[in-house]
Amino acid sequence: MTENHAPDILSCIANLSSDEVFTPPKVANAMLDLLPQELFANPKTTFLDPCCKSGVFLREIAKRLLVGLADKIPDLQRRIDHIFHNQLFGLALTDLTGLTSRRSVYCSKDASGKYSVSFFKNPQGHIRYTRCEHEFQNGKCRQCGASQSEYDRGEELETHAYSFIHSDKVFNDMQFDVIIGNPPYQLSDGGNAASARPIYHLFVQQAKRLNPRYLTMIIPSRWFSGGKGLDDFRDEMLHDESLRILCDVPTPSDCFPRIRLEGGVCYFLWDRDNKGLCEVSTYKDGSKISSLTRPLLEKGCSTFVRYNESISILRKVRSFCETTMDNIISSRKPFGLPNNFSNFQTKKQDNLIKLIGYKKEGYVEKNQILQHTEWIGKYKVLISEAYGEVNSQTILFVIGKPFVVEPNVCCLETYLVAGVFNNKEYAENQVSYMKTKFFRFLVMLQKPTQHATKFVYSFVPVQDFSKPWTDAELYEKYGLNDEEIAFIESMIRPME
Fold it and tell me: What is the pTM assigned to this prediction?
């Protein structure tokens, strides 16, 4: 006979496909496990969730405090009242998430009602929602970068101007021991299609400004390499010696079912009073697969090297002090022509230049090529500027297939020019190198999203392209051992 199972409602919510990324209780507890557990036995410890959605963090903290304070406050109701009135505080993202959070924590959406497990005079209790407005300047909110065209709304609609990052006071300047949460990840910036601006880093930075003893948040891992609005945040985090634990989850569905987040997610422990090296752990299918205490910023690097197993490989490669591929690969729009360029002819003529892009090709006059005209008459190696793979894939291609184009062939910004040669054989030899697992592994270390700008090739050394290359030759050249080779082989798919 099968036992009846009553699932946790917050686990069910976290499995829903939604614009809001709700935190499953399992993940919330994994983050709470990072904290010194004696905090839950101290009746003076204060906790703040500045981005309440389901109330899961405050609920799970309350459960731990109820156990930890049992000896100090034996009476259950007194203990409940003490915890909810003196130790747990939350800021809801919206009016609705405030109601949901209070229902989860107080067992009533109205903290002043008869069904609340602890009575407050204020219906919101200590889980508050305060409507804020964006401060628009030149079409953007000066605080969070939200687009005025998207978020300048009437009172009947949510503004998504989150109080934690739009106001100076939090619970009357109260000092918190622990700040914990899962912040919103992005807001539309008014760009084309689904263009969006990261916002999660603003919650982390604001939390640090409040100077808690401990800070733990779960955020996208895109900041590892910086990018759109994140370069300063990346540098700040990688130089912060208070960041003592970093848990990296490259496959985001391991934390958030049904949610697609390129590059994965991570959660961390920031310890104000205990500086030092960081314990970096990688998780797969809910299990820790590697852990290493190391500097967050590897010597000579500007980005975070994600996988612990890759550190020794990268050090061996960099010890050769060779020129790297980012010095020869072009920037976006190598010939100055965007993807939406349409001023071309469809019929081939001997005096015209062939132009290729994503699902389009045509012919143009030489004077229509805006830059790098010296490349027109040469053999060129092209590589797609963007290449994405589904989150569930753990063995990756990393980049699209490179290919050689003949002289008098140019491209739109769909492609980057990876190499320019007078000799076709040299171009084909470069392609052989780019198809190796070794090459694509080093790219992977710098590529957290589908975009593959020249920057992601900055760990990859340039080779002698008078000959083709194989992985066996590269492994031997850089002195990789069996374990290092096995790790590369386990991460990268063959490319024919």
Answer: 0.84
